[in-house]
């Protein structure tokens, strides 16, 4: 039912050794802290972008469109390109000639470390800063937005939480080691070598409890993931989502605006724990957290997540609740699909603990088991008693799960861009495990299309059936959707494929040796460059510019024949 079910099963069934661990209490930088409430309004209804995001992307678009122009000209000088200024940008249908610069977004899908590493390789192939260039090096610089979900949020957080380094440097200086010594492997977590990390994480979670906030399994989950993804003491303990806005590459608009997605559980609303096809999609970004969807339709300033609100008015202000590890843990909350309490450990046999029980132990030191509420990413509800958020306004707490789980699971975080009509081209890198070999087959992007239609969102081009994906091989090569519809975005669909490495690794694989990390990323570079196919850079440029109104290179006609599905 869920793409990550395998991981849940794995985490439940993995027997581990227990060693007696010292419990030392350390000062923690993890707990949310009380703050003075600002005079400004912190909650708003979802009528358009915030001024802060709007300002950011105006600036970012300038840089991104210059980068797009130089990349396009390097591919083919005859691309006609009008200089991009936001004011002249008005969506495809308003453009009359001159090759206006489209606004580009990238989505990095869920799928555990497989998705993170395949997605990382795609970015490496797109990034002109890397030493080894491809024909598509420069596309990363042309992005205005980058969204990540679950494993894709691990990737996005490792980039944005570390001030936007290259994948090459993250690989060499962090992931090659941290994914090999993965703290998600119970024997490693419970080994004497990890004892200091274990006690630091335990102290972090208890500090959150002492500060008056109910911790959940997502606290230790996010903390342990963060040791693999974030630099800085105690696994990036001071990093927050709102803090990304003060990093140097963000303030200089060198990087795409990052968005992490998650889903709401309706457990407290109508008893439906597992997300239904119309589940509320939430987004976390440096300036705001909230949802565009009917029933919530509101945003709060991310820095003040954790604050108690009533009817949009702050009661007691809190900051640092938007801890980045907690948010990426929420986006990858596979435990949410368990939909039950985690029981106390039955036996006194010390070999019986699984990772999920280890996590529960960390949450509930000295107490037996955790209640069902603590399998969720818990957020004091910013929309409590907020009239326009009718679906959730009665709940004191929002309970969030992995963005890619549920009945009609959507592994690609496309949703934020269906609400941002300025986004013209969405590059969808799908690393889902739909097939038995852990490759995508179109199921998840189709689910997003179906949900978009049901919600009355019109930016998504028509997505064909899974049968068509498979019979036409659309799930094994790049495909463009929406080439011929000026009133929708264009989707450049780039699925995981095993060019040079068996990249269909199981979602439940929670440890990658250095050679495996490197092999996955190198294969991802091939995914971005379509295996080095000579005509691909031109064709990608043609697809991106197709609806921009400018004169296109002669070669584009053949490209549209080859890549445009509709
Ligand atoms: C971020 O800043 C560093 C240092 O100035 C630079 O090397 C790096 O390339 C920047 N990242 C981006 C995305 O420009
Ligand atoms: C979601 O769909 C269910 C039926 O599957 C329906 O009962 C519910 O009202 C819908 N919720 C919203 C917010 O549209
Ligand atoms: C604990 O006991 C219950 C009831 O006997 C059983 O269903 C469950 O699987 C046991 N859990 C573990 C971790 O052994
Ligand atoms: C596509 O993937 C879905 C989800 O795993 C699966 O149920 C379906 O059978 C697959 N269909 C094809 C044609 O591969
Ligand atoms: C990719 O998978 C196919 C089977 O689907 C296999 O024949 C081929 O050898 C694999 N290639 C690599 C590089 O793993
Ligand atoms: C990676 O290295 C390990 C040993 O460190 C070895 O067992 C494994 O076969 C290697 N995998 C690949 C794909 O080369
Ligand atoms: C889409 O817009 C382009 C550029 O303005 C225009 O040339 C083309 O005719 C339009 N296509 C449709 C179907 O409206």
Give a description of the structure.
Strand 6 and strand 7 form a beta hairpin. The chain starts with a helix and ends with a helix. The N terminus is likely disordered. Helix 3 packs across helix 4 and helix 5 runs antiparallel to helix 17. The protein is α+β, with helices and mostly antiparallel strands. The chain binds 2-acetamido-2-deoxy-beta-D-glucopyranose (7 copies). One 2-acetamido-2-deoxy-beta-D-glucopyranose (NAG) binds next to helix 10. This is Lysophospholipase. It catalyses: a 1-acyl-sn-glycero-3-phosphocholine + H2O = sn-glycerol 3-phosphocholine + a fatty acid + H(+). InterPro entries: Acyl_Trfase/lysoPLipase, LysoPLipase_cat_dom.
